[in-house]
Task: inverse folding
């Protein structure tokens, strides 16, 4: 943590699935910019995409899910939640203050994601090298 008065949070929210892509992206950017502009530090915004809801919310069957990881002072959270409540396009949200277990799980998820990306890059490089070798033999 950079500042002793800030804490790590996880914010998950569902945006109405009937909005177009531009409007959805504007809402995501608006929330991230609000957090950053009011003393927060947005570390990651993980867009899950459009998912079918388990039950109808305001007559809607689908929502676009987003999870944001950020550090912020505690007094920012009620302001952010009030902003989310007032936005009719936000169907549901939950804000969690991350404890040690949540931070460890997130770190492990990021490490696994990095490892998979490195493995994929190595496979791609090996395939390209094999193709170049075949091309040299053919000529």
Result:
């Amino acid at each position: 943590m950079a500042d002793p008065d800030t804490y790590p949070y996880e914010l998950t929210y569902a945006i109405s699935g009937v909005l177009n892509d531009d409007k959805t992206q504007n809402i995501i950017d608006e929330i991230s910019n609000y957090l950053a502009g009011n003393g927060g530090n947005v570390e990651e915004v993980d867009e899950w995409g459009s998912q079918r809801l388990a039950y109808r919310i305001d007559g809607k069957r689908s929502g676009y899910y987003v999870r944001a990881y950020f550090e912020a002072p505690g007094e920012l959270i009620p302001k952010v939640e009030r902003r989310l409540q007032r936005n009719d396009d936000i169907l549901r949200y939950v804000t969690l203050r991350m404890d040690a277990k949540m931070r460890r799980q997130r770190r492990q998820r990021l490490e696994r994601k990095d490892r998979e990306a490195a493995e994929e890059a190595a496979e791609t490089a090996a395939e390209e090298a094999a193709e170049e070798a075949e091309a040299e033999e053919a000529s």
Q: What stands out?
A: The mean pLDDT is 89. The CA atoms of residues 16 and 59 lie 10 Å apart. Helices lie at 21-37, 76-86, 100-138. The domain at 1-98 is CATH 3.30.70.60 (Alpha-Beta Plaits).
